[in-house]
TrEMBL record, chain A:
One of its GO terms (biological process) is snRNA processing. Residues 825-966 form the Integrator complex subunit 4/Protein SIEL C-terminal Ig-like domain. Belongs to the Integrator subunit 4 family. The gene is INTS4. InterPro entries: ARM-like (IPR011989), ARM-type_fold (IPR016024), INTS4_8HBD (IPR056235), INTS4_C (IPR057412). Its main location: cytoplasm. Keywords: Cytoplasm, Nucleus, Repeat. One of its GO terms (cellular component) is integrator complex. This is Integrator complex subunit 4. The keyword Chloroplast does not apply. It is found in: Cytoplasm; Nucleus. Coiled coil: none annotated. PANTHER family: INTEGRATOR COMPLEX SUBUNIT 4.
Automatic annotation (TrEMBL), chain B:
Gene3D superfamilies: 3.40.50.10890, Ribonuclease Z/Hydroxyacylglutathione hydrolase-like. Pfam families: Beta-Casp (PF10996), IntS11_C (PF21386), Lactamase_B_6 (PF16661), RMMBL (PF07521). Its cofactor is Zn(2+). One of its GO terms (molecular function) is hydrolase activity. One of its GO terms (cellular component) is cytoplasm. Belongs to the metallo-beta-lactamase superfamily. RNA-metabolizing metallo-beta-lactamase-like family. INTS11 subfamily. Keywords: Cytoplasm, Hydrolase, Metal-binding, Nucleus, Zinc. It comes from Oreochromis niloticus (Nile tilapia). This is Integrator complex subunit 11. Residues 245-363 form the Beta-Casp domain. It is found in: Cytoplasm; Nucleus.
Length: 969, 595
């Protein structure tokens, strides 16, 4: 029962894959190509009424057509089109024409004439619109044919006066996509360039339709104009006034497009001068546009508001005077001026009074306002962001926050001003908005220094239950500048509180304090005695070294001490001891310090802190030299060569440890060389001269070596990122050698030989471009002998392989520019706990896992969690895609839960948890170099290379004590 | 000229007792039917005798519309419908219909059972009154009768608050009720489309105020509560049962959730549970966040907020208690206040305005010693905080609404006269529209300029469209020829041929002729030919034809030549043109020919 229950539980909570896979034979599919056109023709002729015909067309549309038969199909469709009386069928045909002309490899210029001809006879507006759409598709397919363009544009111009909005829409779209500014369009009878009177350029034609009676056409006209702009044509400034008028249109889509239009113009002509209506003043166009768009932030439709708020963010040329107005909101109460809460807070802070408004009349209105000066409808930019940040829809609020960010990054004074508003957003009801505003504040934090009261509100968020919010805030604090030592104290206090409440935040909090300390050494200095609770006369008890809070304080102090040489004088004895301990155990958080009278520590540290940029170069040089040295291996005696390899591998490994930048490359080389070493050892046994099957002992070590080489090659291929095809070829080459070795060692069977030959072939196919670099190698020789190999008997093959293997030399490894090894560190669980996780057997227990992954591509699909039970059972769990976060480039964070279960144990025991990197050889891009057409892709797949799937453990295993108890009956 | 008349019976230059009469297109509508909280005599209800001295109101009113459930907007409803007498339709939104009777009943209980008044409406009357109510949905157009239609918009003031758009023919009025343009924790912002009404009747409670951002106030509130809880103190928040209370609950609930706090929050029971129930039901009327997340969890199903029991007040440890009533003048909130006042760790937060004379008002003004009944004094040691959470539009909000709706006239109600004066000036200055602010019983008349719909025959329209050049500039007026027929209350524009046919008349053609005498020795035919060639050289761009029957036709002008009987050298030129040419663009042509 328990077992059954357990099974069910697994099914419900997690996907568990047992590692041994049974191979299922793949089914092969072959697609036949029936003649499309013929079938369609027959179908259409069969159709008695329009419904039938429509049905056939619909069916036809579901299947793709090959490029070569498109033209035939088009002819048939057109033929039917002329005969057809029903509008809907004609419409479908027209849309099919458009669809067909998109077919790859088909050039639609041959059907242009037909399509244009059909236009002139068409009566139905809907069909007309569809035909124009088809022309649009054709036009966009043939971008480099000016004559065709001109023709299409003329067609569009002719139909612009249609009464149906759809036709006008499509015409405008055509003009937008194909029209040229420099090539004027005339009426049809006049032709381009013949008469001056009828000539108008595309822009003025389109702008005529800004005043169309149908809102959809107005939108299309604006969109067409934007399209022109996108195609790199310069929009005239005259349009600005018209576009501004459309900002007050009754329809939201028009307003939204108009906002874009105004923005485009403001970017094109920022400095030109426009008059302010009803006064004789003039302002810059970009300021005027900014004011108008700011106005749209309080529009009735939220789509427009989002659009407007987003757009504001990209208007960086606006004058600071206007920019600051967006945050302006004059408050009044009963016609008396009132100060905003922000101003009050600032004043309180300035006056030094430490209390916030606890009085009722605290916000009592002050001076009386002159009624004439109060501007209720703020003209221009007034308070746009104040509105945007208070909007009902969170989309608008996010857009406003982002816009603030963009503007603030380019203007420090504005950044200072918008600080209060951003801090207010930390209290938004939607987490996304809160998170976004924290991120934004971090981005602009280089410009600002937080006041104490502001810091106070920022820190209040540290108690948020959402981990993302807290970590974002820690990140923010890392970059924040604060003004006083009280701020530091406050921040530390709140962070410790946070640590107390959410112990899992430990690492993040420490890191935060590290930056806080190194940023403000002078502010920390006066706090040190208090922080370390030292006393001038009395010895204070030594704090507990395992207390995360104490470590947090020490991290702050030590990082501040780094750039403040007077600080260590304030330390007590145990502080120095703790320093030595922490420097060792948490070296990433505690910097090396120059402590007086501690030469030894100093000396050791200087080695670590010594290497600068210069040493990276020298390390690189060393790496290269080692590789070069290895390449001379051919000339050496067998034993000498092995020694050299051994040495080099050791060197490289040490190099990787010392120089983190080169760790990936060094590791890669070392692993590669190890493969070579193994191969060499296996081959250079003296026993090889005997008949192979006779020596069993030799057989065992060599087989093991072959197997190990195979595994290493998979690691080489999938664990490192930044590989070029050259390196991949080299890796595959080693793998091929290992396979050959296996073949030589195992019993000779025809099927094995065949598989090997297939491997060779696929290698040749995949790395055709790399073959010239592989001269004189194993493969090179094999390929020379290939004709002979494929015909010879297995025994003969083995012999050839044996000699080739032994003759072939070592392949020179060339290093790529950037090479990184995928690594994973499990932060949680730590594996230190002695308290077993108790649960009832047969039921499940959830284990929280927190890990950072570096240089893993596509972790959602490749990273798995493996749980190894003491009885040898192992489970692999796929984490949900949502469990991965991306805090930085090449970095991922996995926060997930795995469910454990087991039958009852008598006493607690350890299970191992580790992360696996799953790979599959078919998933690499190299096996299918380019995506072919859908019809051929199945056939072209290299059938020979069956996908090899497997997993590589790439994190240290963490041990967790668990204790399944028998259920109480 | 048609007129729209607006007469406030309450809320004219006054806050409280909202009741506005509108007559539009021959229909009489009552907007809101509220009572004044400040009076206990006849002045508390609107003066219905203004409508009719005796008898029932049914004959004089076409419908009654209630904007939301606050008593100053619906308190007089049972009195009007049952005691004065009104049987017509009463419109209100679904949430209003659900919550309104609870409040009316509560109000009745207090006045009748506690204060012992007689001659007041009974429970049965409330029920009967509610039976006459027809519920409205947002943005649903309801036909009251053939001509009168109403449509509700979201107002955001309290749950179910609505603005109404009233339309008769092409005349329309929008009444806002109370509304709020800034969203809060449980309600969205008011919204209306560009309906361009003839009059926009707007509340103006905060006509002279521009408020600070809501966020600051919320943050302050939460911070104060949080600090007090951390100190281990107890927080008392006196509230009225509906509206703000729910907002504060949501605010605290989400904060507790976010910050992972454990201290209990209590809500004194009674009215509130019923009300919360309705809030749970009418999720569609709340704001974006609550609407979007209610599938996972209904925000009004509070996780941290529990029902309060009297004994909990003595429990040790921190807690937050919401208790009614809001001004600390009686009931549970006062009891708890007395218990907690002595400890300076505790805190009371007044979330709204307090009337003079209440304890709330006294402590807000800093009084530290209170005299209770029976000569006992109470030392107030706990902290007193004031947080204003009001859900009316401020001056900016009102202007924003005007910009949204684009009315032709503006009418302010529900505000103080002095403040209205300021806003009135601003509105007239900014939008250059007329703004009115009638006092109670004073009638404002607005003349409208309604458009008269005319049917036009499609053929005529198409013909004129074909004549009139390319399609753009549709907003320019264009002249067209046609005949207007007025027949049995309907107007029709048809082509003249059809008009003749319909009326059974014959077509008459009007031609103008004139004779011009010329001295010309040539023969008639020659003269004509000479005229033809001359005209051809002078009038470029006109079609000039020389017909074989001895006439020259320039466009539609006919020219004939005949010799005079007396003198063969004197030729008489006969010009003839039609009526259209007389007034049309061809007159210049005529001039050329004549000279």
């Amino acid at each position: 029962m328990a077992a059954h229950l357990k099974k069910r539980v697994y099914e419900e909570f997690s996907k568990v894959v047992q590692i041994p896979h049974e191979e299922t034979p793949a089914k092969k599919l072959r697609l036949s190509k029936p003649s499309k056109s013929a079938a369609l023709h027959i179908d259409l002729c069969k159709a008695t009424n329009s419904t039938d015909a429509l049905q056939y067309l619909l069916q036809f549309a579901r299947k793709p057509v090959e490029a070569e038969s498109v033209e035939g199909v088009v002819r048939i469709l057109l033929e039917h089109y002329y005969k057809e009386t029903d509008n809907s069928v004609r419409l479908k045909i027209a849309s099919l024409l458009g669809l067909l002309s998109k077919t790859q490899g088909f050039s639609p210029d041959c059907i242009v004439d037909d399509a244009i001809n059909t236009l002139s006879n068409e009566k139905s507006h809907q069909v007309l619109a569809q035909l124009l759409d088809t022309l649009l598709v054709i036009g966009t397919q043939l971008p480099e044919s000016p004559a065709l363009r001109l023709r299409l544009v003329e067609v569009a111009y002719k139909h612009l006066s249609d009464t149906y909005f759809g036709v006008r829409n499509k015409c405008l779209q055509l003009l937008g996509c194909l029209g040229m500014v420099d090539a004027p369009v005339g009426k049809e009878n006049e032709g381009p360039g013949t008469s001056l009177g009828g000539l108008r350029d595309v822009q003025s034609i389109i702008s005529d339709y800004f005043g169309d009676q149908d809102p959809r056409v107005r939108t299309a006209a604006l969109k067409a104009m934007l399209q022109l702009h996108e195609r790199g044509m310069k929009i005239h400034q005259i349009i600005y006034d018209q576009a501004c008028r459309l900002l007050t249109d009754d329809y939201e889509q028009v307003r939204s497009a108009a906002v874009q239009m105004v923005w485009v113009l403001s970017q094109l002509y920022p400095e030109s001068i426009v008059p302010i209506p009803s006064s004789n003043e003039e302002i810059r166009l970009v300021d005027d546009a900014f004011g108008k768009i700011s106005h749209m932030v309080s529009d009735g439709s939220w789509m427009v508001r989002v659009q407007a708020a987003k757009t504001l963010g990209s208007m960086l040329q606006v004058s600071p005077h206007f920019l600051e107005q967006t945050l302006d909101k004059k408050l009044m109460s009963d016609l008396r001026r009132k100060r905003t809460a922000h101003e009050r807070a600032k004043e309180l802070f300035a006056s030094g009074e430490f209390s916030s408004g606890r009085k009722w009349a605290d916000d009592a209105p002050k001076e009386k306002l002159d009624t004439n000066t109060v501007n209720l409808i703020a003209s221009g930019a007034c308070g746009a962001f104040v509105h945007g940040l208070e909007d009902e829809m969170f989309e608008v609020r996010i857009a406003a926050v982002e816009a603030l960010c963009h503007l603030a990054r380019s203007s420090p004074s504005f950044a200072e001003k918008c600080l209060d508003f951003l801090v207010d957003m930390f209290n938004d009801e939607i987490e996304e908005v809160r998170l976004q505003s924290i991120h934004v504040l971090r981005e602009i934090s280089t410009h600002i220094t937080l006041r104490e009261d502001q810091l106070d509100t920022v820190l209040a968020v540290l108690e948020d239950s959402s981990r993302d919010i807290r970590e974002a805030l820690h990140e923010l604090l890392c970059y924040t500048n604060v003004s006083t030592k009280e701020c530091i104290q406050l921040a530390l206090l709140e962070l410790l509180k946070n640590l107390n409440k959410y112990p899992t935040d430990r690492n993040s909090v420490w890191k935060c304090l590290k930056f806080l300390g190194s940023r403000h050494p002078t502010l920390v200095l006066p706090l040190v005695p208090e922080l370390l609770s030292t006393h001038p006369y009395f010895d204070t008890p030594e704090p507990d070294m395992d207390d995360p809070a104490y470590i947090a304080v020490l991290v702050l102090v030590f990082n501040a001490a780094k750039s403040c040489p007077t600080m260590p004088a304030l330390f007590s004895d145990h502080t120095f001891r703790h320093y030595a301990y922490l420097r060792d155990s948490l070296s990433h958080l505690v910097p090396p310090l120059r402590l007086p009278g501690r030469k030894q520590v100093y000396g050791l540290d200087s080695v670590d802190s010594g290497p600068g940029s210069g040493s990276v170069e020298s390390a690189q040089l060393f790496l290269q030299q080692s590789l070069n040295r290895v390449s001379t291996i051919q000339n050496l005696e067998a034993s000498g060569a092995q020694d050299l390899l051994d040495l080099t591998i050791r060197d490289l490994q040490r190099l990787g440890e010392l120089q983190t930048e080169l760790a990936g490359a060094a590791d890669f080389c070392a692993t590669y060389l190890r493969c070579q070493l193994l191969l060499m050892k296996a081959l250079q046994e003296k026993l090889w001269n005997m008949a192979v099957p006779l020596c069993l002992k030799q057989n065992v070590t060599a087989t093991a070596a072959a197997q190990q080489i195979l595994e290493e090659t998979y690691k080489l291929e999938f664990l490192y990122s930044g590989l070029e095809s050259r390196q991949v070829a080299t890796i595959h080459h080693v793998r091929l050698q290992a396979k050959a070795l296996q073949l030589v060692l195992t019993s000779v069977h025809t099927s094995h030989c065949e598989r090997f030959l297939q491997d060779v072939e696929s290698f040749q196919r995949l790395f055709l471009t790399e073959l010239p670099h592989l001269q004189d190698s194993f493969v090179d020789k094999l390929l020379e002998l290939m004709p002979r190999l494929s015909s010879c008997k297995p025994v003969e093959l083995v012999k050839i392989l044996q000699t080739t293997l032994r003759q072939s030399g070592l392949l020179q490894l060339r290093l790529p520019e950037q090479i990184h090894r995928a690594t994973a560190t499990i932060i949680e669980p730590t594996g230190e706990s002695d308290n077993p996780l108790r649960f009832t057997s047969g039921l499940v227990v959830a284990l929280d896992i927190d890990a950072t992954l570096e240089h893993v591509q596509d972790p959602q699909n490749t990273v798995k969690v493996q749980v190894l039970y003491p009885d040898g059972q192992s489970h692999v769990i796929h984490p949900k895609p949502g469990d991965f976060r991306k805090p930085g480039p090449h970095r991922h964070r996995l926060i997930t839960q795995v469910y454990l279960s087991h039958t009852a144990w008598t006493e607690p025991s350890q299970i191992e948890v580790r992360l696996l990197l799953a790979y599959s050889s078919s998933s690499t891009s190299l096996t299918s170099p380019s995506k072919l057409g859908w019809s051929e892709s199945l056939e072209s797949l290299p059938a020979a290379e069956a996908a090899v799937e497997g997993t590589i453990p790439f994190s240290k295993a963490v041990k967790v004590f668990i204790m399944p108890k028998p259920a109480r009956r | 000229m048609p007129e729209i008349k607006v007469t406030p019976l309450g809320a004219g230059q006054d806050v409280g007792r909202s009741c506005i009469l509108v007559s539009i297109g021959g229909k009489n509508i009552m907007l809101d039917c509220g009572m004044h909280m400040g009076y206990n005599d006849d002045r508390r209800f609107p003066d219905f005798s203004y409508i009719t001295q005796n008898g029932r109101l049914t004959d004089f009113l076409d419908c009654v519309i209630i904007s939301h459930f606050h008593l100053d907007h619906c308190g007089a409803l049972p009195y009007m419908s049952e005691m004065v007498g009104y049987d017509g339709p009463i419109y209100m939104t679904h949430p209003t219909k659900a919550i309104c009777p609870i409040l009316l009943e509560d109000f009745r209980k207090i006045t009748v059972d506690k204060k012992g008044e007689t001659n007041f409406f009974t429970s049965q009357m409330i029920k009967d009154c509610m039976k006459k109510v027809i519920p409205l949905n947002l943005h649903q157009t309801v036909q009251v009768d053939d001509e009168l239609e109403i449509k509700a918009y979201y107002a955001g003031h309290v749950l179910g608050a609505a603005m109404v758009h009233i339309k008769v023919g092409s005349e329309s009025v929008v009444y806002t009720g109370d509304y709020n343009m800034t969203p809060d924790r449980h309600l969205g912002a008011a919204w209306i489309d560009k309906c361009r009404p003839d009059i926009l009747i707007s509340e103006s409670t905060y006509a002279t105020t521009i408020r600070d951002s809501k966020r600051c106030r919320e943050r302050d509130f939460l911070k104060k509560v949080h600090e007090s809880i951390e100190r281990g103190g107890k927080v008392l928040i006196p509230v009225f049962a509906l509206g703000r209370a729910q907002e504060l609950c949501i605010l605290l609930e989400t904060f507790w959730e976010r910050m992972n706090l454990k201290a209990p929050i209590y809500f004194s029971t009674g009215l509130t549970e019923k009300a919360n129930h309705y809030y749970k039901l009418f999720i569609t009327w709340t704001n974006q966040k609550i609407r979007k997340t209610f599938v996972q969890r209904n925000m009004f199903e509070f996780k941290h907020i529990k029902a309060f029991d009297r004994s909990y007040a003595d429990n040790p440890g921190p807690m937050v208690v919401f208790a009614t009533p809001g001004m600390l003048h009686a009931g549970q909130s006062l009891q708890i206040f007395k218990k907690w006042a002595g400890n300076e760790k505790n805190m009371v937060i007044m979330p709204g305005y307090c009337v003079q004379g209440t304890i709330g008002h006294k402590i807000l003004n800093g009084q530290r010693k209170l005299e209770m009944e029976g000569r006992a004094t109470l030392d107030v040691k706990l902290q007193v905080e004031y947080m204003s959470f009001s859900a009316h539009a401020d001056a900016k909000g009102i202007m924003q609404l005007i910009r949204m709706a684009e009315p032709r006239n503006m009418l302010l109600v529900h505000g103080e006269a002095v403040k209205m004066e300021f806003l009135k000036g601003k509105i007239e200055q900014e939008f250059s529209i007329d703004c009115y602010m009638p006092a109670n019983g004073e009638t404002t008349t607005v003349t409208t300029n309604p458009s008269v719909p005319v049917d036009i025959s499609l053929n005529l329209l198409k013909r004129e469209m074909a004549l009139g050049g390319p399609l753009p500039d549709p907003k320019k007026p264009r002249t067209m020829h046609g005949t207007l027929i007025m027949k049995e209350n309907s107007l029709k524009l048809v082509s003249s041929e059809q008009a003749l046919k319909e009326l059974g008349l014959n077509e008459h053609q009007l031609r103008f002729t004139c004779h011009v005498q010329l001295q010309d020795p040539h023969s008639d035919a020659d003269t004509l030919h000479r005229i033809y060639t001359h005209l051809k050289s002078v009038l470029k761009g006109y079609t000039i034809q020389h017909l074989p029957d001895g006439t020259v036709i320039v466009e539609s002008i006919v020219i004939k030549v005949s010799s005079s009987t007396e003198d063969s050298n004197t030729k008489v030129l006969l010009l003839s043109w039609s009526y259209q040419v007389q007034i049309g663009p061809h007159s210049t042509l005529k001039k050329v020919i004549v000279t």
